[in-house]
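Entry:
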Amino acid sequence: MDVNLRALRYFVMTAETGTISEAALKLNISQPSVSAAIQKLEEIHGVQLFIRVPTKGIRLTPDGMRFLERARLLLAQSDEFQHDVSAISQSLSGEITIGSFVNLTPAITAELVGAFHAKYPAINVNIKDLDQFDILRELDTGQIELAITFDLALQTGFSSSVVAALHPRAVLPPEDPLANDARVSIHDVAQRPFILMDLPHTRDYFFGLLADQKIVPSVAFRCKSFEAVRAFVASGLGVSLLNIQPRTDQTYIGRPVVMRPIIEPLRPLKVTILKNNRLRMRPALNLFVDFATSLIPALADPL
């Protein structure tokens, strides 16, 4: 059975003032509204709450006294609940849930979250490491509150704020002759076996870059992780294109790779902070966005 908190407040005020007219005055509503609310409570719960006393207004019945005690308790709990909800929405504490593009997590997001936590330790940042398909899906369904990602396959209903642009670079083994050049042509790179970053929407980006140059790559291997691409290149199995340049050229097995800028003007990947327009931004989220916007450009710069 639903409980009408407004009707309970009318009832409690009437019990405390002793008259419907005084209760209506304090509540700033009409007397018929108070009377109707009390009558509805009596009908719903099958009790008589008041008796009319000539010249003295109304008084609580024994059932009304017991009802008043419980009504006050319920209203106090409701007020406490509303206070707690307001505190959650307004405070700079608690937990926020952020989606991070899987390749940006080790390169940018981890450092960003560490710096944010050092400055705002009361805010716990929950990071979900996702590819672009899952980022768009979880942002749409509200499983994450915002995302640090790339401008790939963005859809209506989202708003994006660009914080950095990462241009594609050739990834080469040190023994490749192209590694001796300061800049290389994508057409020379495309003559080698190609190691593809094979993630949803990411693969489309790289195939699109090559198609714009009328290049059909000879894909030798497909990898799901950034470091796997670098490892395959370092092992002499091909070359690749990547937009993130780590601050080290060493792979996990200790072999180096070389990254070189591309001569041709290729479309960069833009690091964006992505939000669902249907989701209200809490103060803690706004604080994180401001912090990320100021720090990510420096983290994205390999120099």
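The first strand starts at residue 50 and ends at 53.
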